[in-house]
Write a structure and sequence with these properties.
eight-stranded antiparallel beta sheet, globular
Amino acid sequence: MKIQELLQELETKEAYKEFKGKYPISYLSAGFFILSQNEIEGDKVQLDFFVPSENKMASFEYPFASYKLHEDEIKEAVEIKDLDFKIDLTEIKEVTEKVLGQEFTKIIAILQNKMWNVTALAGIAIKRMKINAYTEEIAEAGDLALNDVMRFSKK
């Protein structure tokens, strides 16, 4: 599904109407998606809105029955105004596998600040890329070491 279609579906939900009534100047600023080949786990779709009056983010997770206003304070966020992406959610898996050169069992994709930040998993292999959603320009791509994502502490 395309992000514009997800947003249109969200706008029909009571939770969104309640949210917009309470926070009328909020705006779409990010999307968080987990695409999984595991049928039991399934996919995760989340649209995030910046609430300037609260300096916080609010998230709607599919099927958009409710929203969560996060506690962390955010100073600013970039609004996603143009939903005409060259790489939309429907293409992200195919583009990721083409750019990174293999198939993946799970793709974690974050859309923010005009960029897709993608982490792709295949067994213990972890790859990452950043790609402009509007221009298809690849900002970076490559392997991600396990110690890049894990923190070790001495006791």
